[in-house]
Design brief:
By secondary structure, the chain is an alpha+beta fold. 59% of the residues lie in helices and 8% in strands. It is built from 25 helices and 13 strands.
Length: 824
């Protein structure tokens, strides 16, 4: 045990040692100090005010010191988002400036942003008014063109009656003092008799309902004409181009006019006056065209001016957004600090890794110097009550594996990290299920492409699926390499075996090989040097042989990984000085698991080595049902029966060994502690002087024997039943591997070979396309996802539940880099 304790520590095996620190910062250097700590990104602040407010119910979160600055930053962020939306709508791009100013003049920036917002709002309001006027004139022009046709045709039919359409609802005379367009838009006195008309324009999607409503309202006493507009018109609400239809309604009577105008208003139809006189129509049309030309010029100038302003804003937008984002983060962090009694210093607390203390102290000294403060920042270590956060230093390669583990649960502080072993075991178990070196090469090519373009892809904004794939590029790399390795062992290249490592050890009984798939082959030389002999392919015993091989191999891998998990629980117990867990959990668990399934693994290895025909199902079943019966032909070695009896008794003893001693010993220790006979068990900051600074003080909760006993009983039952179910769960390695192999064989034989049997190039190309599609989308995508999820379950449930608590919390330091990543 002393040898184990003296072994050097692995970087990723245990989380970084953390310490709890307190900062006392003068007010004049607080902002700069927090900014420098954000650049460093190695200190996690604790919300001191949150604890204070829990103790003082009359305190509100809005009473924090820097809440006004946070509100101002939020308002500036809103303005910057408004600028970004305007730039996006205008089809422009903002320039990304990599450099950041160390000092942010918040007042000047706030004033500058307010001026830009006011200028943009004015330009937008003017542009909207001009655009609305332009749309109205454009609609008026279209109505004049289309409605004039209806009026001419209507006049030709009315000549017999002598009806003058000049007496319609609009004025028929235009005084010289007003322009023709202004005269046309004036409303005239209503006539009590005669044929009248209303012309206008309406969206095409509403025309049918509009016509039906007019017909019902007037009881059919109208004449409705329509014609599609030749141009698309912008909708002022949605800013989308919509199709519209020009309509002219002929009617008679004042009541009909009132109803029609109300219906037009309800349907959003715009009504425009059209004179019957062709000369006046021509004059008004020319005037409308003239004003449209002027408005187009004005709008174009306004758009250019607005784009120039947006381009100027966009040049600084990224810089401003980063500045405001950082300022808001700094003030949010300052709000987590509390004033001391003199109101001259801010007091903060937080966690940092021990290795980062010199860097933090250097940053604080630099902040004091740069802010010209007469008083330095005090940085000292404190004792902590709660457990420290968990922090693993990872790189681009190990980060994905750590994320796989953290998705199950973040490791408790200084708990053994499964990611160390997951780096190898996860891609290997995936490859056991996916083994095909042809498919593995396809995955390897994809992984190498992602790694080769790592620099370019890391700076781009990717979709959710592509981002996940890029983040796991090194997982994909090892998965592909192990798939090639396992594929060589299975001797499968897109399900086709090859004589890569020499000739087969088997041959046909005669030259015709007519009975090769019925009677079988004969062995004439030493075994195939590496992997499965290619002659097994297509033989009558192919499936039984591969089933037996992969099933036994799955059990061996499963028992080995579960033993590794139990061994890690032993190292956890040693690290945390928990001798009870070693004696009453680790030892009986090792005995129980290996008395049953470790023994099964031993039988599998002996059977492979000796070539015995013993039935292992029979051996394991009758080990429980009839342990004293003679094994007969199923005996693999001398002394097997007494060994089985001993192992069975050991497994039976291990169950109460796990269940009963630990709760009673804990109760005894608790009783002795309060009777004063075991003061050494107590741990406090006054007595335990050898404890690490910053480590959590041990607070003993109220001891409840019934809860402890029930917890231990559940844990023991879960392990006993889980040993059986977890071992059976590893058989998914066999099942998935067999399914992948058989599915690949079906696509190869029933698609590719079947198509290649035809002497037709078209059929062959179709068959090749179907085979490629099935390989890419079913075998390389769906099967990869399936094997990935099953490997994930084996690690989360079967492996990690033997030792991994996963009830810790991540170290989340205040970092500007993390803020930028969150925004992305």
């Amino acid at each position: 045990m002393e040898l184990l304790k003296n072994l050097p520590e692995m970087d990723l095996m245990r989380s970084e040692k953390m310490t709890f620190v307190q900062l006392i910062i003068p007010v004049e250097s607080a902002h700069r100090a927090v900014s420098y700590l954000g650049e460093l990104g190695l200190l996690q602040f604790r919300d001191v005010l949150n604890v204070f407010m829990e103790l003082n119910d009359d305190k509100s979160p809005f009473q924090r010191t820097f809440v006004n600055q946070v509100k101002r930053c939020a308002e500036m962020s809103r303005k910057l988002r408004f600028f970004k939306d305007q730039i996006h709508k205008a089809g422009l791009q903002s320039s990304a400036l990599p450099t950041l100013q160390p000092d942010v003049d918040l007042e000047a920036l706030e004033t500058q942003l307010a001026e830009h917002e006011h200028e943009l709002n004015e330009m937008n309001a003017n542009s909207e008014k001009l655009q609305q006027t332009y749309n109205e004139l454009l609609e008026f022009k279209i109505v004049l063109q289309k409605a004039g046709v209806f009026l001419v045709s209507g006049k030709s039919y009315d000549t017999a009656e002598g009806t003058e359409l000049d007496d319609n609802v609009y004025p028929s005379d235009y005084p010289e003092s007003a322009s023709l367009l202004e005269q046309a838009t004036q409303s005239g006195p209503p006539n009590s008799s005669g044929l009248r008309f209303i012309s206008g324009i309406i969206p095409k999607s509403k025309i049918l309902l509009f016509e039906r409503m007019l017909f019902r309202a007037t009881r059919g006493n109208l004449l409705f004409n329509q014609a599609p507009a030749d141009e698309l018109i912008m909708d002022p609400v949605s800013s989308e181009m919509v199709e519209k239809t020009v309509f002219v309604v002929f009617f008679s009577g004042e009541q009909a006019k009132t109803k029609i105008l109300k219906i037009c208003e309800a349907f959003g139809a715009n009504c425009y006056p059209v004179p019957e006189d062709l000369t006046k129509q021509t004059q008004i049309t020319q005037e409308v065209l003239s004003r449209l030309s002027e408005l187009e010029t004005t709008l174009d100038v306004g758009i250019r001016h607005r784009n120039a302003a947006l381009h100027s804003i966009g040049f600084h937008l990224t810089l401003w957004m980063n500045m405001v984002k950082r300022e808001k983060a700094v003030f949010d962090t300052l709000n987590m600090l509390n004033f001391d009694v003199t109101k001259k210093c801010l007091v903060g607390e937080g966690w940092c890794p021990i290795f980062a203390k010199p860097q933090i102290q250097e940053a604080l000294q630099r902040a004091t110097f740069d802010s010209n403060s007469q008083v330095g920042i005090i940085f000292h270590v404190m004792d902590a009550v709660e457990s420290p956060p968990t922090y693993f230093r990872t790189n681009a390669f190990t980060n994905a594996y750590q994320e796989i583990v953290d998705a199950y649960g973040v490791a408790k502080y200084q708990e053994a990290n499964p990611a160390v072993y997951t780096v190898i075991t996860f891609p290997f178990l995936f490859a056991v299920m996916f083994g095909d070196w042809g498919h593995g090469i396809c995955l390897l090519i994809g992984a190498l492409i992602l790694i080769a373009r790592e620099g370019k892809l890391s700076s781009q904004k990717l979709g959710s699926f592509m981002e996940m794939l890029f983040g796991g590029r090194y997982v994909l790399l090892l998965m592909s390499l192990f798939s090639i390795y396992c594929g060589l062992i299975y001797n499968e290249f897109f399900s086709v075996p090859y004589h890569i490592f020499g000739d087969s050890a088997y041959k046909c009984r005669d030259d015709s090989c007519s009975d090769a798939y019925t009677v079988g082959l004969i062995k004439y030389r030493d075994a195939y040097p590496f992997g499965v002999d290619p002659s097994w392919r297509g033989s009558r015993s192919e499936l039984p042989f591969l089933n037996s091989l992969k099933m036994k191999m799955s059990i061996l891998f499963g028992v080995a990984q579960m033993n590794l998990g139990i061994m890690l629980s032993y190292f956890n117990s040693i690290f945390f000085n928990n001798s009870l867990d070693i004696r009453y959990q680790f030892v009986p668990q090792m005995i129980f698991l290996n008395s049953l399934f470790g023994y099964l693994s031993l039988l599998i290895i002996i059977k492979w080595c000796t070539g015995s025909q013993a039935d292992l199902y029979h051996v394991m079943i009758y080990m429980f049902l009839s342990p004293f019966d003679d094994l007969g032909e199923n005996e693999l070695f001398w002394g097997q029966r007494p060994l089985q009896i001993l192992l069975l008794l050991s497994a039976l003893v291990a169950v109460p060994w796990m269940l009963f001693p630990k709760p009673f010993i804990l109760r005894k220790l608790h009783t002795e502690r309060f009777q004063g006979r075991a003061y050494g068990i107590l741990r406090s900051s006054e007595i335990d002087t050898d404890s690490d600074p910053g480590s959590p003080r041990q607070h003993e909760d109220e001891f409840n024997f019934s809860e402890v006993f029930v917890h231990q009983m559940i844990h023991s039952i879960e392990f006993v039943l889980g040993s059986v179910s977890n071992t059976a769960s590893y058989l998914r390695l066999w099942a998935l591997s067999l399914a992948h192999s058989e599915l690949s064989t079906v696509f190869y034989e029933k698609v590719l070979l079947l198509a290649w049997g035809y002497n037709n190039i078209l059929i062959r190309m179709v068959g090749l396309a179907v085979f490629a599609f099935a390989t890419a989308f079913i075998l390389l995508m769906m099967e990869t996802l399936s094997a990935f999820l099953h490997a994930l379950r084996l690690h989360w449930v079967e492996f990690q539940n033997k030792f991994y608590g996963g009830d810790g919390y991540k170290f989340k330091p205040f970092s500007f880099a993390a803020i930028a990543d969150d925004e992305d």
